[in-house]
Structures are given as structure tokens and as C-alpha cells.
Write a structure and sequence with these properties.
heterodimer, A: 4 helices, 76% helix, 0% strand, elongated, B: alpha/beta, seven-stranded mixed sheet, 7 strands, 42% helix, globular
Chain lengths: 116, 233
């Protein structure tokens, strides 16, 4: 029972945090919230996972949850990787602008100073 | 002063040299170029030695990346700079002394005769002095791979000595920061409808350049970068 309360509290916090993020596309926030809500439902009614698992040919509800977690994790990893690649591209563009903006032209030959 | 065609005066040709920790030789490379050509830009890819200072003292424009990005990124930075300075021809040239500036005259002649958009140096049409056998095998394999991916029938697909017209340099965009840029460069040529010819050049492998250059085993990492680039698209 305690573990259920902890899980519900963590998932609830996740929903609140995601809904407060304004710099994220709405469908991603909505998808994360939906997943968290589904997770809360499964925590409160764990037998539902078994019913859903049997409906699609999986033996145990816990197995279904694990499979869904693996798929979700892969999607998150790929999303993170794409974000990293985009960030790397932005860093490259920025570094390039800095380099060009601070270009050094060839040193001119030193002129002999006039004697006093 | 070089005058292979009215357009190809030495003032219109810009050399782009990506460099990383080449303080020992970059000054000589720049001075060697400036015996015949005027405009050299060295892109210092965040070297930890005096590469930038030595290149600048030798007479080059110097751009310095604030962090190490890779040879591909340095080339693209240098190309953008050269185009901004009004370059009509861009020559990519290695900083380690493997290339001979005299070959660029031949490449410019080839460009003037063929009106090619890109002239690629080929050590297998010319000469590769001191090339290790393992390097030769890897480069031959790379040639076969590039024929399949780019549709170009080239003899040397990993030569840093290239000549581009201004128009070609404006259209080519290198997004592979590290060594996979060489394949990325070739992959863009046919889709862009560019006229590409090869010219025989001499590559001189020295103890310094072999110690400094990438190992043949790096070809696996380059292949990974190429595949990652395809997936990104």
C-alpha cells in the first residue's frame, strides 16, 4: 500500500511538472501526462494490466508493463539523441560565428621606427 | 602571378587550411603557398599549441574555433570566410605538409580547360610517396564504397586537395564535423549537378604526417559517422 502511495505521488508530480513546462510542444506534454495517468490507473487497479495483457496475447500484466516501458524508453532515447544532434549543430554554428567574427588578418611587416 | 585564365588570378584563389596542433609545420605550409598565391585562411580548430600564431605570422588569415569541432567543421568555416572575402576559387589544403602547392597550378589548368565545378586531386592518378600498404588498401575499399553511395567513379575519395569554383563552394554544405565530411562532400556533388574531374597530384607522406594523421582503423569510425548522418536525414 505504501509503495502505491509513493508511485502515485511521483507520477502526480510528473504530471504537474510537465503541465508547467511552456517551452515544450503541447502534444509531448499531453502524451507524457497521458502515460503518467495510465500508470496511476495501473498502480491503483493492477489487475487491469493483466486483463490488457491477456487481450493482446501477453501472459502476465507485469510483462506487458515491461514491454511498454522498453518501447517508451527507446522512443525517449531516440528523441534525446535527435535533440543532442540539433544542439551540436547549433553549437557548431555558434562557434563558427565566433571564429569568423574574431578573424585575425595577416600581420603586416613591422615598419622600422624613425630615429629621434 | 598565376594567370591560367582571366578569372584565375592569384588574388581570386583562396586556400582554406583546417589545422589542429600543427604549429610545427603550418608556418612553412603557409609560406610555401604564399610564394605563388596571396590568400590563405587557416582555421585553428582550438589547438593547444601555437598553430594560430604561427600561421598568422606566416601571413595567413586565422580563424579560431572556441572548441574543437573537427576537420569538416573547420573546412566549412574556412570556406564561408573565403567566400565572404570574395574568393572566386577555393582550394582545400592540408596543414601537415603532405600537399604540394605546385599541384594547384595543374588543377587550375584542368579547371580552365574543362570548366569543371570541382577538381579533385588524386594520388592514384599521380603519386603517393611513402604511403603505407595498409593505407592503400583502406583507401581502395573507400573508393568502392564511395562509388556505391555517391555515384561518382573516382580513383581517390579521401584526398584533402580540392579546388572548387565559387558557385560550387556556395552550394556545398558540410555538416559532418569530423572525418566523414570527405564522403559527405562527394555525396553532394552529383545531386547538385556538378561537373567533377580529377587531376593527378603528389601526396608526400612524411614521418610527421604519418604520426599526425588518422590511423587506418579510424575508417570504422568514419563509416559510423556516415551512417549516423544518413539516419539524421
Amino acid at each position: 500500500m505504501i509503495i502505491k502511495l509513493i508511485l502515485i505521488a511521483l507520477l502526480g508530480t510528473c504530471i504537474v511538472y510537465v503541465s508547467m513546462q511552456k517551452n515544450r510542444p503541447a502534444f509531448i506534454s499531453n502524451a507524457i501526462s497521458l502515460i503518467a495517468v495510465c500508470a496511476i490507473v495501473l498502480v491503483v487497479f493492477p489487475d487491469l494490466s493483466t486483463i490488457a495483457a491477456h487481450a493482446i496475447g501477453v501472459r502476465r500484466g507485469a510483462d506487458l508493463v515491461i514491454y511498454l516501458w522498453i518501447v517508451t524508453s527507446f522512443a525517449l532515447i531516440i528523441n534525446l539523441q535527435l535533440k543532442l544532434l540539433n544542439m551540436h549543430r547549433d553549437i557548431t554554428d555558434l562557434a563558427r560565428q565566433v571564429a569568423i567574427g574574431s578573424a585575425r588578418t595577416p600581420k603586416e611587416e613591422a615598419q622600422p621606427s624613425d630615429a629621434d | 602571378m598565376l594567370r591560367t585564365s582571366p578569372v584565375q588570378c592569384s588574388e581570386s584563389v583562396w586556400f582554406v587550411i583546417p589545422a589542429y596542433n600543427e604549429a610545427q609545420v603550418v608556418g612553412d605550409v603557409v609560406r610555401g603557398i604564399q610564394n605563388a598565391f596571396h590568400n590563405v585562411v587557416v582555421v585553428d580548430d582550438c589547438s593547444s599549441d601555437a598553430t594560430g600564431d604561427n600561421a598568422n605570422k606566416a601571413g595567413a588569415h586565422v580563424l579560431r574555433h572556441p572548441l574543437n569541432l573537427g576537420q569538416g567543421a573547420a573546412l566549412q568555416t574556412g570556406i564561408i570566410y573565403a567566400l565572404g572575402q570574395g574568393a572566386q576559387f577555393v582550394v582545400t589544403f592540408d596543414a601537415d605538409g603532405q600537399h604540394d602547392v605546385q599541384e594547384v597550378f595543374k588543377m587550375l589548368e584542368v579547371q580552365a580547360e574543362t570548366q569543371a565545378d570541382v577538381v579533385l586531386g588524386s594520388r592514384f592518378l599521380g603519386e603517393a610517396k611513402g604511403m603505407p600498404a595498409s593505407r592503400r588498401i583502406v583507401l581502395r575499399a573507400a573508393t568502392i564504397f564511395t562509388r556505391l553511395t555517391s555515384g561518382l567513379d573516382l580513383s581517390d575519395v579521401h584526398n584533402g586537395l580540392r579546388l572548387m569554383t565559387r558557385s560550387a563552394a556556395c552550394r556545398i554544405r558540410l555538416e559532418q564535423n569530423r572525418m566523414a565530411h570527405a564522403s559527405e562532400f562527394l555525396d553532394q556533388l552529383k545531386p547538385l549537378g556538378m561537373r567533377v574531374v580529377e587531376a593527378p597530384v603528389t601526396i608526400s607522406y612524411t614521418e610527421y604526417s604519418l604520426a599526425k594523421g588518422q590511423r587506418s582503423s579510424a575508417s570504422f569510425r568514419i563509416l559510423f559517422e556516415i551512417i549516423a548522418g544518413w539516419l539524421r536525414r
